[in-house]
Design goal:
The chain is mainly β. The protein has 2 helices and 29 strands.
């Protein structure tokens, strides 16, 4: 029995409150709580116990603790008590069920290993306190044909599978598919069960490692053309990902097609040896100008050729000295023609301006009522009348144009060029006649 020490002003505390689980696995549980409502003194610590009172773990004044050493797939009633200097108080209780135990005896079927799949089996796990659902196989690529697989480093990746993957199986045998060639996988198996309406994963098995066989590679990556001229081009590319093995060589080939007419110009194939490098390049010379080249790059492993990476390149046309002269002459002719057009336009514009100005300066035609008012003019010997002689349509070739100035108008008439300024008789609304010589 627990001894009780009498301390003045203190007593055992009440039970911890809000006891609950933080996490559970196959062999341990983490619990949390808050201090008692009535501490009856200074709390000196907490403890987790089995239902029979056996202490699993003691803690200080922290409000969380983990009890380990539990059995998998087992129901436990656990107690948590608080203590003062007087002693422990009454417990709070919680019931938990640990997760399923560890799957044992994983066996890889070596005769079923290929470059993209492997088959394994394991011992059946007995589960009594939760509802069995299935088995889950975890597999992680750890090494490739060029060394460790490092997540986040593209140049060092040898598998597009970076990070842990998983597949579920109902029984105790499973085949992992869509694997990559020449890659080592770390494999574990765990049982999946349903506990209190939630899916729980049991303890994982010990890890086993197995390497897939080599396979044919995927297509080379990042195929690009550089420094394209009328007779040469440089191709660059990077190693396939995944390579599915050690890349032994690349086969680079092309088909050349004339751009105009589509005639086949020829084909060529080149072998590029590799020395475990991830990047490669090849320069072609003596190509045909103004042609379309269809390049194909294929990687090889010990298992053969992989998928081709394809790129189209167009060579530039030939440029000779004669072509330059012809171009210069053509350009000169174009410039001369443009200059001639500009001159013609300027001359036409000038003529148009002069005509418009002349039209503005010409004497406006006066209407019939004004012409009827003009009947008398003076000749060179003195005043004289020229009845019937209208300003417009005079038949006397010695007459020129004359302008009659009105207060706000002007009229045209013909008159002898020897006249200068004359007064109109009997036409008081006109001021004068000013001769204009053509």
């Amino acid at each position: 029995s627990n001894s009780v020490v009498e301390v003045s002003g203190q007593d055992v505390p009440s039970a911890p409150r809000s006891l609950g689980t933080v996490s559970i696995n196959s062999s341990s549980v983490t619990l949390s709580w808050i201090p008692p409502a009535t501490p009856n003194g200074v709390i000196t610590g907490y403890s987790i116990q089995y239902a029979n009172g056996t202490v699993i773990a003691n803690f200080g004044t922290v409000l969380m603790g983990t009890a380990g050493g539990l059995l998998p797939d087992t129901v436990y009633e656990l107690l948590v008590t608080a203590s003062t200097r007087v002693g422990p108080g009454p417990p709070s209780t919680v019931t938990i069920t640990t997760y399923p135990g560890r799957v044992a005896e994983i066996n890889i079927l070596t005769d079923a290993i290929t470059s993209s799949a492997l088959t394994l089996n394991w011992m059946e796990l007995t589960i009594t306190n939760s509802a069995f659902s299935r088995y889950r196989v975890f597999y992680l690529p750890v090494r490739g044909p060029y060394g460790p697989i490092i997540a986040g480093s593209r140049r060092k990746r040898q598998s597009a599978q970076v990070g842990e993957l998983s597949m579920d199986f109902a029984g105790t045998t499973g085949t992992l598919t869509i694997l990559h060639g020449a890659v080592t996988y770390r494999i574990q198996v765990a049982a999946v069960a349903i506990l209190s309406g939630q899916e729980v994963i049991g303890e994982r098995s010990d890890a086993v490692e197995m390497t897939t066989l080599e396979g044919v590679p995927t297509a080379p990556r990042d195929l690009k053309s550089m420094d394209v001229t009328n007779s040469s081009v440089t191709l660059t590319w990077t190693r396939p990902n995944p390579p599915n093995g050690i890349i032994t060589m690349y086969n680079v080939s092309y088909v050349a097609i004339k751009q105009q007419g589509g005639d086949l110009l020829g084909s060529h194939s080149t072998i590029v040896e590799t020395i475990n490098n991830s990047d490669s390049s090849l320069t072609y010379t003596d190509l045909t100008a103004s042609a379309k080249y269809q390049f194909s790059v294929v990687a090889y492993t010990s298992e053969g050729a992989g998928i081709a990476a394809v790129l189209s390149v167009f060579t530039s046309p030939n440029i000779t000295q004669g072509d330059n002269t012809s171009d210069d002459s053509s350009n000169t002719g174009v410039v001369a023609a443009m200059a001639a057009v500009i001159v013609i336009l300027l001359v036409g514009l000038t003529i148009s301006v002069v005509v418009n100005v002349w039209q503005c300066l010409k004497i406006k035609s006066f209407d019939k009522s004004d012409r009827n008012a003009v009947r008398h003019i003076h000749n060179v010997e003195g005043p004289s009348t020229a009845k019937g002689q209208e300003a417009k349509g005079s038949t006397d070739p010695t007459y020129e144009k004359v302008q009659l100035r009105k207060l706000d108008d002007a009229v045209n008439m013909d008159v002898n060029p020897s006249y200068n300024t004359m007064k109109l008789h009997d036409v008081p609304e006109y001021e004068e006649i000013v001769t204009t010589f053509s």
